[in-house]
Design goal:
With 457 residues, this protein is α/β, with parallel strands linked by helices. It has one domain: Glycosidases (TIM Barrel, Alpha-Beta Barrel). The protein contains 16 helices and 19 strands. The strands form 6 sheets. The protein has an 8-stranded parallel beta barrel, surrounded by 5 helices. A 3-stranded mixed sheet has the order 7-11-12. Strands 1-19 form a two-stranded antiparallel sheet. Helix 3 runs parallel beside helix 5 and helix 7 runs parallel beside helix 9. It is globular, with a radius of gyration of 21 Å. It binds 5-hydroxymethyl-3,4-dihydroxypiperidine. 5-hydroxymethyl-3,4-dihydroxypiperidine (IFM) binds next to loops.
């Protein structure tokens, strides 16, 4: 690499976190209850005090500022703000207000997510997102939040990864409530999408200037055996169910089958995106398995012959395919809205892959932008190691390593590198040669990546 890859002025350089994963002691949501049942979390881990953000987020805001971050994506914990139905806790709202002010005072613009996987317990016992009334209750919570915090929040994400929430909570059963039912999964997804639409309208009613988006985890899906017509069809079907159904309704408003048995547009959803939040991690292969009858005979896997990241309870977290982020940007661009990469990251405890991962993915973001795709920012997941849901503390995504026993923070090499990129607003040849000289060689998986892009673009 001989010339720098420069990003436009004003590009958002950020990191992302979510409330339950960093705050600590979120005892009043369904995840806390779930964690306390043996067998649910790898190694029996618990979120505990997590990264102690409820008391000391400012310590990590300082670190984010030192890494030249101009934005940070964090989420609000509904179960703190509305601990009992209809009771809004002013002290919780005050704490969030303080956090947001502290970010602004460091020159860091907050991007705030309203729902990131957790529900208050009172809501969960009423059926959570299976219950259509939850949409109305979410709207009420959003209105309170925006009235109190709106002046400090230029960008809102309504719901984080509705597809993942529905898939893991209602199909694989790895997330609470641990159900396995297609019809429930699609009911939940439909309600989350409706909630997005309602929240979009409510926020704009209160603040015309706010920008509001939905955060979608986009996964390139490739047939396990490209010569098998069944695998090819299944990959397309799963891409439709996972990628398309979780995003398209926020543009055209339609809740199609299987989101609804009587397909119809849902008014508040129509054209309800000011931006698309794209989370990209890795691609998945899809193949036919007669045993997988509960999953429409689909078996998922990690592409073969491709470098993988650290492993969790069930094997590698994912394959490292930087071209996938380029695919995700192209895919999201069909909706005609600005794009933020709201999450992209890798679990890599010893940090031997992360510098290369970040550089090669950013190079693909740059490639897309130089072709005219409107990407406005990139948020690395995550600023600091945090509680990784059913994988507990077993997967480490942070630019900053956390010792959970002592709460000691240690900046990783990759963190230092990301800070330099943000500071330069560019990937310079010096940064590349210092941190990951081979990152731009596309040495990982060129054949797989190219076939992936051919199939899905
Ligand atoms: O930690 C999660 C996050 O909460 C949602 N997106 C994926 C991340 C890594 O698995």
């Amino acid at each position: 690499m001989t010339t720098a890859l420069r990003f436009p002025q004003g590009f958002r350089w950020g990191t992302a976190v979510s409330s339950h994963q960093v705050e600590g002691n979120n005892t009043n949501n369904q995840w806390w209850a779930w964690e306390n049942v043996p067998g649910h979390i790898w190694h029996g881990d618990k979120s505990g005090i997590a990264c102690n953000w409820w008391k000391q987020a400012e310590r990590d805001f300082d670190l984010a500022a030192q890494l030249n971050q101009n934005s940070l994506r964090l989420s609000l914990e509904w179960s703190r703000i509305e601990p009992e139905e209809g009771f809004f806790d002013q002290s919780a709202l005050r704490r969030y207000r303080r956090m947001l002010e502290e970010l602004h005072s460091r020159g860091i613009e907050p991007m705030v997510t309203l729902h990131h996987f957790t529900n208050p317990l009172w809501l969960e016992v009423k059926g959570g997102w299976e219950n259509p009334d939850t949409v109305k209750k979410f709207r009420q919570y959003v209105v309170r939040v925006v009235e109190y915090l709106g002046d400090l929040v230029p960008m809102w994400c309504t719901v984080n990864e509705p597809g993942t929430y529905a898939l893991e909570g209602y199909l694989t059963g790895l997330f609470p409530p641990g159900k396995k039912s297609f019809s429930r999964a699609f009911r939940v997804l439909a309600n989350l999408l409706k909630a997005h639409g309602e929240a979009y309208r409510a926020i704009h009613m209160l603040d015309g200037k706010a920008r509001v988006g939905l955060v979608k985890n986009l996964r390139p899906l490739a047939p396990q055996d490209p010569s098998s017509p069944t695998d090819v069809r299944l990959a397309h079907l799963f891409s439709y169910l996972f990628n398309d159904l979780g995003l398209r309704p926020a543009v055209d408003g339609w809740l199609r089958f299987p989101l609804s048995f009587r397909p119809a547009p849902f008014g508040p959803l129509i054209d309800s995106l000011d931006f698309v939040g794209v989370n990209y991690y890795s691609p998945t292969t899809v193949g036919f398995s007669p045993k997988a009858y509960r999953m429409l005979f689909m078996k998922w896997g990690v592409p073969e012959g491709v470098e993988v990241s650290d492993s969790g309870r069930y094997g590698p977290y994912g394959a490292i395919v930087p071209e996938g982020i380029y695919w995700a940007i192209k895919y999201a661009s069909q909706f005609g809205k600005p794009i933020y990469i709201t999450e992209n990251g890798i679990p890599d405890a010893d940090d031997d892959q992360r510098p290369r991962f970040i550089l090669s993915h950013l190079a693909q973001v740059h490639r897309a932008m130089s072709e005219g795709y409107d990407v406005r920012g990139y948020y690395y997941w995550s600023l600091i190691d945090n509680f990784e849901w059913c994988e507990g503390w077993g997967l480490r995504f942070g630019l900053i390593a956390l010792d959970t026993k002592t709460q000691k923070r240690t900046l990783r090499h990759s963190g230092e590198m990301y800070g330099k990129i943000a500071g330069e607003n560019a990937i310079t040849p010096e940064i590349t040669s210092e941190y990951a000289p081979k990152a731009m060689e596309n040495g990982n998986s060129p054949a797989f990546a190219e076939s992936l892009l051919r199939r899905f673009t």
